[in-house]
Prior knowledge:
heterodimer; A: mainly alpha; disordered N terminus; B: mainly beta; ten-stranded antiparallel beta sheet; elongated
Amino acid sequence: MSVANGAKECQRSSPMKARSHPGRRFSSLLPRSLFGRILLVCVLCVLLLLTVAGVIAASIWIEDRHPADDPEKALFPGAQRMVTRPIVQAVSRRIEEKIRRNMEAKFMETGLSLDETIAYFLDERIDLRERRFHAYRLAREGTPESIAALLKVLYAAPPADKAYIAALIGRTGNPAGKEWLKPLLSDPDEKVARAAIRGMGLLGGDDASAELGAILEDEDRSQPVRIESAIALGSIGSAASTDALVTAFSEMPSDEVTAEILNGLGKANYHRVGPVFESFIGSGQAPVEMRMVAVEALSESSADAIPYLVGVAAGHREADLRASAAWAISAHGAASYLGPGLADMTEKEPEADVRRRLYEAMLTQPGLPADRVLSAAMKEDDVAARIAGFNAIGHATRQAPGSATASAFDAEIIPELVQTASQPNSLNLRMRAVFALRRAGTPAARQALETLSRCETPQIATAARNGLRAANP
Amino acid sequence: MRDAADRDRGTERPAGRQPLTAMKTLSIFSRPIAAIAIQLCLAGGAAADGEDNFNDNAKDPAKWGADDVTGYGLLTEAGQQLRYTCTIGTLEDFAERPWNLTRFPYNADWEIMVEASNFTVPSPPFQVSSMGITLLSPLSASEELYHEFYNSALVAGPDRSGFSTQMSAGGVHQGGADSSDLSIDRVAMRIAWNSATKVLTSFYDIDPSDGYQWIELTSFGLSAAGGGTAANADWGLADSDRFFISLYGYSAAMSVSAGQMYLDNFKEVGGVSSGSGTRPQPVGHFPFAFPSGNPALTRILSITGNYQGISPSPGQRSYTIDAAQDEAGKISAIGVVEGIEDVNGNATIAANVGSVKTVNEEPVALLKGSFKGELDDLSTTFKGNASVPVDVVDLGAGEQGVQGTGSFASKLGGVPFSGKNMQVEVPAPPGSIDNLKQDWSLDLDIELKTVNGKERTVATAMLILPNGDTIQYPERVVKYSEKKGYKIAFKKGTNITANPDTLDKRSTVILTGLTFEKVGDEWEPTAGTINYKFLGQAGIEDLLEFLPP
């Protein structure tokens, strides 16, 4: 009688007994040999891993193309939020942790244990400039012993070391560090106070925003300290920090402080700060230099600032502001629908300096109306605008090699660019002439780079050689 | 220029500026017979050379030069007086009128007097008003002496009126004397030069209506021999040198209406013809250069050049980046990073990557960029920004580089990840640091030139930027003020390195308070502030720091 038949017999004669040994039926499916069983386990593990990897890959694929937080693209918003999104977030966190570990490796992976690090840090026989480096690890670990050692040294340190350690505390990202930095915010040494402010800014949070906002508004504090607070608030980028900046802005501080407040506000989402900027830029009362700062600060804002910037670039009565807006558009780089509009604006713009910035804004745009840009650039008398226009044409040539524009670039523009780059001229203009050749990347442009690689000016020769290397890696 | 503290005429003064005890000696008992004779002469009152009773209600250009004005101060001949008014009181308002008809010899005796009235009622804590005589060195704006009748409520209040004579030499207050409160509003003032002793003595009369009863206030020795009671300082004058004088009105934090402050019956004896000449204006060629080895000064950096090395992230990749910085500080860059290609498969990545600005007196590269392409054949997007002070520091283990903070958001193979306010450390391999240029210079030329038939002082300048570009500024007429020196704004120059020449609206240099003293035949700067702005960055510093060694 076979084992299987014997088992059937058992089941028939003693059903209760059979129920008490369900594994026997399962085990009958397993290979009999140990090797076979190990092999089976391995196969199952691989299958499991493949399944997990598949789920992760599918989650990444889905969230990449159909993000859960984009109502227009999400496939199954509810399910994605429950399944795919958390999976992708977990993967992201792993990557970010790895990046962070890499960045702080030199502080954390010193070959010393934490106890040894504390002992070394407290050893007054060693110059503090050599010990202070370890403040990072002590602040990052945040154990009672490491904090005690850190604070003991920090508060007794000379100003330069105090400032160094304060900056390190901010870099750790340990929110407990805010309490350690607070006493230093009012340190009589300006460098220490500024380092503590920078540290608070890196650590962030509403409590830090409140502290920094108070410093920013305090007219008794020195201007550099107030400027540092404005910068730190801008780096926090929260609703509370933005509110603090808006409040300080309304109190009309000095131009230098106002400039940094504007730069800080410029980093916020445009929908939060747009009215402040539009009112300030639209006002004829503020000096044009300050309004230029405001316009250029929006280069850091969210993409919904671009339509406003396009409006300023196209139609503001002051040329300096139009130029600033065009530059801010070029620095945004994200919007890829502006090519034809920029060409329109360039054709209508009376100021060469503004046209230069408009050409520069074209450098990130696909689908440029190359023939119109070519026509406009060839009419330029201003050398900076002309070379900026040639860069835009070089960009268009790269996108459409073999086009009429590419032919015109080779025939008409390359000789002029070679002349500009190789003969005495402003180094800035000469470098940009080389950039135009590198952008175009045509055989004739490479030949021109070959010529320039033998130029006597080292910066030009090196830029040309770098271009040749990029073309023939 | 005097500040409000210098003009504190009360009992509370800044430390270190305590006046010597006033010597209230009735001159009737002590003055020499010669002085009596001079007074008799001064009392004549008839309009003649060497005096002005202001009765014509019009400024006589043969006697008086162009007014030097600060704020809303104004001197006007009206009501047969020389009135000082100030329509809007600012921190300091001032008007000074140089006497051009005669000069006052170092090697002969002379005297100057004027009557003054001050009916203002200053309020504490800051209001002050005064009128008086300024004595000026022909060689330097750093030496001066003033004798004035003031009304002050500075600091303590209530208002108090009296006389003060103070002297500066080498740009530093040397001392003086104050009469303390005399509770008067109509007075006469007088200064007298003794050429034998080289001592200048100041006097006042508290009631000129009954003839002059001069009271000596104090005296100053202006040669190496000393001899003054309040202070002594060698002004370095030779026998052939001649002093200049002017009349002035001053107010701080208060408005002054017509008739509240005026001078009258100005007279001088012993002056010699000026030959219609004016006080010599400093001229010459003055080179200035950003000094090396002074980290306290605000640097302007050019970063145009070639950079190559191994990037710290992502994944230790070799890179080459060429950067160009324009006159506004905007940076365009083009480069190659190992393993990275754009969406079209091009290894060349090009972008406008930000700008260099001055933040808190430090050059900072504000960088940003976005990228869409492939990293090691994985689809990649990246958007980030960084703020990096352009200051090469020790990164540890003997490595040099720059440090800053940055934020980014990226997607690699569809996996998003980001970092906020992370430390950015970029090692600067040998050669890269050489791209950072901070040396620049300004060649200032001031000369006399005939413009439209009149002799004018004109200034030109040539600015050589850290990137090697030369900006030539057009000639402009300038005017030297004894109090404020030159103020010269160089704007809208021409970049003569660019081919063809290009107007540069972004590079400006403003010199203020640029004063000189004459050493031998040459003028040498003694003070000044330079406000410089180019390559998108800016600084304000003491001009003397930029003098070549």
